[in-house]
Write a structure and sequence with these properties.
Layout lengths: L12 E6 L2 E7 L3 H9 L2 H7 L6 E4 L8 E7 L13 H19 L3 E3 L7 E4 L2 E4 L5 E3 L9 H17 L7 H4 L6 H7 L8 H14 L2 H5 L8 H17 L12 H4 L4 H15 L6 E5 L16 E6 L2 H13 L5 E5 L19 H4 L4 E4 L3 H7 L4 H11 L2 E6 L5 H7 L11 H8 L3 E8 L6 E7 L2
Parallel strand pairs: 9-10, 9-12, 10-11, 12-13
Antiparallel strand pairs: 1-2, 2-4, 3-4, 5-8, 6-7, 13-15, 14-15
Length: 454
Amino acid sequence: MKPISSSFRDQSGFVFRHKGEYYRAIREVYRKEYEKLIGSGLYTQLTRKRLLIEHKEVNDISTEQDVFRVIRPEQIPVISYAYEWRFSMLKDAAMCTLNNVLEALEFDMILKDANTYNIQFLNGAPLLIDTLSFETYYENQSWTAYRQFCEHFIAPLILMKYCNASLNKLLIAYPNGIPLEVCKSMLPLRARFNVHVYLHVFLQNNLSTNRESSLKQPSSLFTKQKLMTLLNGLKSFVSSLYERKEKTTWDQYYEATITSQDYLEEKNKMVLSFLELVPFQTILDLGANDGVFSLLYTNTAKQIVALDEDRNCIERLYVRCKQDRITNIIPLVANVAHPSPDIGWNNEERTALFKRIQADLTLSLALIHHLAIANNIPLEKILSWLHSLSPYLLIEFVEKEDPKVQQLLANRKDVFDTYSLAHFKTIIAPLYVILKEGQIPGSSRMLFLLKRKE
């Protein structure tokens, strides 16, 4: 029952792996709170509303002496972090957290933690996954996780709104939440005139600089009604937030592309026909844009992770999945040339992006020329990396004469003498078996279905 690398801070229990699945051990010290969570009806209400992850109690795993219960939660196919989410995802995760707190108060319980890591996306929606976050609420008690919520949710959301839509990536540098002092220093003057921003960032930061005086305030001043008012105010504020609109590099790529609609339709047909030849359940779609190829498997048994560095594309894909109730696609923002790294305690607490994704099949369509030419990554390194990701690979090779490649070369010297189809085939020969290849009609582009040589 060895805790996983991210589960060591909470003394109430820990998460561990057993036979390839995740379990949560609950220590004796948390017995009273757990029994109240279950016995009060709060757990039933939260799981019914899809706010809290469901679990089953298990009795066939031997436990440590101070562990009184082991539970098996619903399994999360892909763990993602807030610095890989889009604005709407972070906003929905914040609302999920607040709804959990408000529901808990109805049963005289409250969340003791309010960080982004406790929220994961399952079946297209955010879900609280830390069953041990609940504790008994006592009258006149303040919300101890309020500041944590502000640093994990409010700070990145308002920075994305007022400054730049990519500033949630500051959570890589500040994994315990963006300090309110840092957030305050980056906001424009006009942000101060928003009453919610002033209350939850400026005023909260000022109070923290004089903690001794704030601790002397009588607890009786903070009633349950005031706490409910604070939480409902936070909900109203979060629901009103909209991100700063900015044009991005690949925004509306398919609308503005120099390749024709016929090309896209033919490519869709080829992709489907190629993939009929191999067995797979999980797909990693690299450079997914707004999900054209991920959406080919909408609401099937296939689990799909759609990655793209363009935040507008991923925002559109998430909103579409939400509106159309598409439950098997998780869209994430990621630059595959600079993916999320290992961070946290001993660089093990939050693992790198591609350590968290296990796929049967990788889609690399219209991608490798961007890596090779725009990012100066040799084809050998690209194919070696792709080889490590999954047993099967569907990859598109775009020749140097292609208009898209010529665009990449327009303002730079062509030093890519080895970027050619012949060299590409030489590289893949020791790595893969070619199951099928073909030219996409209406273009010079080639499609390859590859099986990894073990």
